[in-house]
Structures are given as C-alpha cells and as structure tokens.
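Reviewer 2 asked us to include a model.

Predict the structure of this chain.
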Amino acid sequence: MKYNIYIIGGVITANFFVALLYSSQQLFCKAGFSKPETDALLETLIRTTLHNFKQEGAKKTLTGPLQRGDALTIRYHLDILRTQWPDLADLYIAFSRFIIHNLVDLKQDKLDKIIKLLHP
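Predicted model (structure tokens):
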C-alpha cells in the first residue's frame, strides 16, 4: 500500500504538473503572450512558488482569489472557463475545492459564498 501511495504522489507531482503547465501555457498564449514570454513567465512562477513552498509551507505560499476569499473573481474566472474551456473549468473547480478544504482559513461568510460557486 505504501508503494502505491508513493506512486500516486509521483503521478500527481509529475504528470498532473505537466498538465497544469500545458494548461497555463495555453491560457497565457490566449492572453497574448508569445511562446518565449510564456516560458519565462512559467519559469518565474514555478521557481518563486517552489521557493516559497520550501521556505513557508503550502498555506503561506497560496495567493489569489481563494486565499483572499474573493468570490466575485472566482465567479468571473469560472464564467470565462465554462464558456471557453469547459475541461479547465472542471480542473479549476477540483483544485479550488481541494484548496478551500485543506489550505485556506476563511471567515465562514466568505467560505460559504465560494463553496456555493464550487458545488453548484
């Protein structure tokens, strides 16, 4: 069983990470960044995130609308993703659910609004 858990960790770390990189690359290109700009942006984000994760841990590394409890921005993101990239909307929702249940400490009113968006 421990071996299978180890393998699952590897799949999440390596394969899912590749899928996230690919998805991000596609979004940055759709936003108008060139391939070299996208690659540089991804490298900066990855290095900074990994550094912060190693120094501060997962909870303190998080940024963005989930960490802030910003339901309006999350709704806006989901509207765009659902209409243009439904598969990415599903991924956004799945990761957001994991994050709100495991990594953020929000006041209940903010948490309730976000949960409504992620559990329609």
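The chain has two domains: 1-58, 62-120. The mean pLDDT is 95. We have added this to the supplementary material.
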